[in-house]
């Protein structure tokens, strides 16, 4: 039996339900969701679970929903007048403790989002994210190294690019992070949303946001440089301990998503409990 055929309860017997999902009601304004996402993007609860008036989950809102709609409506009206229910992604993946890893990852591939919810013993839901699966990667046994992972082109941006160009590039290339050209720094959906919320007052005093240059007041984050010989388990451990897990070699960049997809390999063993 490969690691991908093991169930979530076999892979994470002690911590599977340890991360409660974070929810927001569908009638809340977008600015509330954006403010919450500043604290949760790239964490174990990478998206907000949107609930209806009966507190039942109906979908998700994360960085991509905010970024996409800013591109279409780059004004304070989007944050102050639009409700979360109008931008929700209804393709919510629900899993159980008996779901095997392969099924989970195939669902993530289909939805292009590494996030699921799982019923817990408290009557609510726990979050299962790519960040959570780094724990599985950290305990796997394999000779797979970074150099064995699929090639993924570095998508970059330049000094004089506008926010419109940056966001458009994110959407076009289906990525949440762009590398500043010829550097080890990056911008992400989290950084953009955080800056809008904390520095630009949800665009209430900003005109022509999409024409704004990235340089001010956006502050880039650093990518950690690693060797191509780093083992998959060591890479997982490294990312697990990072506040914003993102690493690069000379020619490629890697996120927790890449680790998750590598776990589908038949060349990985795992001591299930």
Q: What do you see in this structure?
A:
A hairpin with a 5-residue loop joins strand 4 (115-119) and strand 5. The strands form four sheets. This protein has a four-stranded mixed β-sheet. A three-stranded mixed β-sheet has the order 1-2-3. The chain contains ten helices and twelve strands. The chain is an alpha/beta fold and 273 residues long. The chain has two domains: 3-129, CBS-domain; 146-262, CBS-domain.
Topology diagram in text:
Elements: H1 8-11, E1 23-25, H2 30-40, E2 48-51, E3 57-61, H3 63-72, H4 76-81, H5 101-111, E4 115-119, E5 125-129, H6 130-138, E6 156-157, H7 163-172, E7 177-180, E8 185-188, H8 189-198, E9 221-222, E10 224-225, H9 232-240, E11 247-248, E12 253-254, H10 256-262
Parallel strand pairs: 1-2, 6-7, 10-11
Antiparallel strand pairs: 2-3, 4-5, 7-8, 8-9, 11-12
